Automatic annotation (TrEMBL):
UniProt GO molecular function: ATP binding; glycerate kinase activity
Compartments in which it is found: Cytoplasm
Enzyme class: transferase
Organism, scientific name: Microcebus murinus (Gray mouse lemur)
Annotated protein name in UniProt: Glycerate kinase
Pfam families recorded: DUF4147
Gene that this sequence comes from: GLYCTK
Family per record: Belongs to the glycerate kinase type-2 family.
Length: 256
């Protein structure tokens, strides 16, 4: 699944990567500008239908990266895509963290928070994950479609209370949260799933450090957990005095 307009970009830059005629591979575009939309919803429902048709001797290979939350919107009825978008925007505008946003998203989604893995059961599921979140928490990246959620309805209500949104919830959202709170089966596990981080800030830094050392530099990874904007280089000069000259320093800032 690709962000909206991605195929045009591929055609302009690397046309050989486009699918050949009569390919068995299907490509869905959606979530233009990284916002869930009707195209992404259609794609998510097609993915759900495919997963639900799998059997015990099938293997579902899932490729996950940052942006997956927008690419895989499947609200639990009667919540609509528009209602879920509005709630997410209100939370973000009031300063909710990515972890808090994803907790709400997962509670209102058929596929996030392990929902895709549950749909695929009893098939085996292998997820290859590119992390865009500091610390690589697999339950947060793309809202964890193949990772069982550790959160419950009370966690959601606590977040909604914190940002003053509980009283303004649409009836549909209240219905879904109340239904989940009374589910006699409780949370489910994802024992048939293997989640593997294949790319992350930490992995990139380690490789950059190794390659720099091969070239003869003294490489120091200052941090793999930096978030937001780093201080200007002029403000970091005091860090280098003990080296006699600035070392080659791989570092990265990750915005969730």
């Amino acid at each position: 699944q690709l962000w909206g307009g991605a195929r045009v970009t591929i055609w302009l830059q690397k046309g050989e990567m486009l699918l050949k005629p009569h390919s068995r591979v299907q490509v869905f575009e959606g979530a233009e500008n990284n916002l869930p939309d009707r195209d992404a919803l259609r794609a998510a429902l097609a993915i759900q239908q495919l997963a639900e048709g799998l059997m015990a001797d099938d293997l579902l290979l899932v490729l996950i990266s940052g942006g997956g939350s927008a690419l895989l919107p499947a609200p639990i009825p009667p919540v609509t895509l528009e209602e879920k978008q509005t709630l997410t925007k209100l939370l973000a505008a009031r300063g909710a963290t990515i972890q808090e946003l994803n907790t709400i998203r997962k509670a209102l989604s058929q596929l996030k928070g392990g929902g895709l893995a549950q749909a695929a059961y009893p098939a085996q599921v292998v997820s290859l994950i590119l992390s865009d979140v500091v610390g690589d928490p697999v339950e947060v990246i793309a809202s964890g479609p193949t990772v069982a959620s550790a959160h419950n309805v009370q966690d959601c209500l606590h977040i909604l209370n914190r940002y003053g949104l509980r009283a303004a919830l649409p009836r549909s959202v209240k219905t879904v949260l109340a239904r989940a709170d009374s589910d006699p089966h409780g949370p489910y596990s994802c024992g048939h799933v293997l989640n593997v981080i294949i790319g992350s800030n930490a992995l990139a830094l380690a490789e950059a450090q190794q390659q720099a050392e091969v070239l003869g530099y003294r490489a120091v990874v200052l941090s793999a957990a930096m978030q937001g904007w780093d201080a200007p280089a002029a403000h970091r000069a005091d860090r280098y005095q003990c080296h006699g000259h600035p070392p080659l320093v791989p570092a990265a800032s990750v915005m969730a």
